[in-house]
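WARN  no MSA supplied for this record, continuing single-sequence
INFO  ligand: MP5
INFO  echoing inputs
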Amino acid sequence: MAAAPQQSVHPSLPSSTSTLRLLISSSPRRPPPPPPRARRYNRLAASASAAREMPWPHVLTVAGSDSGGGAGIQADIKACAALGAYCSSVVTAVTAQNTAGVQGIHVVPEEFIREQLNSVLSDMSVDVVKTGMLPSIGVVRVLCESLKKFPVKALVVDPVMVSTSGDILSESSTLSVYRDELFAMADIVTPNVKEASRLLGGVSLRTVSDMRNAAESIYKFGPKHVLVKGGDMLESSDATDVFFDGKEFIELHAHRIKTHNTHGTGCTLASCIASELAKGATMLHAVQVAKNFVESALHHSKDLVIGNGPQGPFDHLFKLKCPPYNVGSQPSFKPDQLFLYAVTDSGMNKKWGRSIKEAVQAAIEGGATIVQLREKDSETREFLEAAKACMEICKSSGVPLLINDRVDIALACNADGVHVGQSDMSAHEVRELLGPGKIIGVSCKTPAQAQQAWNDGADYIGCGGVFPTSTKANNPTLGFDGLKTVCLASKLPVVAIGGINASNAGSVMELGLPNLKGVAVVSALFDRPSVVAETRNMKSILTNTSRT
Ligand SMILES: Nc1ncnc2c1ncn2[C@@H]1O[C@H](COP(=O)(O)OP(=O)(O)O)[C@@H](O)[C@H]1O
Ligand SMILES: Cc1ncc(COP(=O)(O)O)c(N)n1
Ligand SMILES: [Mg+2]
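INFO  complex generated
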């Protein structure tokens, strides 16, 4: 356990700050002329800005330094940089810290924290202030005063109190000023479960329902939003956070990444929220982007090793290492998107003289909620071009686009996911390649296959053929009984497939299986003269069945 925070100055620094000021003020006032290269860049920049103003979202972090580089100011700067925001910093404390824990803390004198705040806020246009380690009551008060003097668009308060390693980062006396003064100014407060418990006088938080109650109680201290983070609920297989805006509770789920590299997740999450708010996002969207970012960063860093302690840092700039297509930032998969799943077929498109793009366009116009390109005999280059064109259509209408089997095509066109069969690459391997932000579906005929799909990290399963079908050779028909058996055994949402058309789709949905979210259709949409009309008809059948 680290010593209680102490205020001190390193002995090698000049004994009084006035000596240091003297040193600074005796240096030449006039800046040296810029070197020729810099001048050239300035000219270019000046002519560019005349044509187009480039806003740079600006986050000011008021937090402690982590010598190990994983949390605190260092995490904040990296997180903001990764999301394209500028990050200025007011250092409240310097910690001697590594992957084993916190070995020492020097608190920066309050007056000097005030001076740093003044320097930044009086000169630069800060959009959002994000707070981390505020070691004492005095520091919290200095911050509140500066914020009243220099108001900003939003305030994100991460009430850092104890590090994950168990070291005290803020005196317990700060609890009262947090609650009574800072929270009322905050747009969002982001305690982890331990911090939420301390803020509420030690209540125990074990379940998501406890987290909801805690969010509601903390909301009463005055922030506009509360996010209670569940990263430390280690027994849960999901990393679930609870968001509360005063009216509604929203549970945010992520896969719990199996890794020791979680040092700095809280600092990073709050800085990502601040960056998105600085860009103009709504609070819920900012929180969703931030959560996806942490999940992706942990996924990409799960096997990295740095230091010998139990809690390593992770790579905020993982995107620099992976090709742009490997990075998922879209909100995660929603099972209801399986409702009307259109699966294209190259043979049928040829027969009716349509391009893949025209077929997809028509299915979306008719109301398809997700599209899969199943092009078994297209040339790779031609298929990729078509897939890119389809991606544009799907993106603009908010409909996810999946690619059947071809992970390479999905990566190259940044598709939303991949659907694999039992003889294709395993969902586990596909997940390794695509990362956590993408959708993965697996065709399953048996409970064992459905279980394997869950183990492999798939998002949904396709189950069939429910009826006899001509689009797949040697495909045994499962019938309603087979579909029921698989649905009941599956932990994942299911879409039914195989011979489904306008006359039998209703009966499939009427089975009333809770995780059967929709039907996947090939011939009944695409082996017809009008794809739009058939899709529209199918949509109204499904909508009417699910209403009854
Ligand atoms: N192993 C993990 N896998 C996925 N997300 C995680 C994991 N650990 C933490 N998170 C997420 O990181 C964010 C920070 O949460 P948490 O670690 O609880 O905060 P703190 O770092 O303040 O203790 C939350 O969104 C949480 O759900
Ligand atoms: C300077 C500083 N600020 C914040 C944290 C909390 O980070 P975490 O809870 O992820 O260990 C930390 N360890 N050090
Ligand atoms: Mg953490």
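Residues 63-64, 66, 71-72, 95, 97, 132-133, 160, 163-164, 169, 263-267 surround MP5 (ligand 2) (CB under 6 Å).
INFO  checksum written, moving to next record
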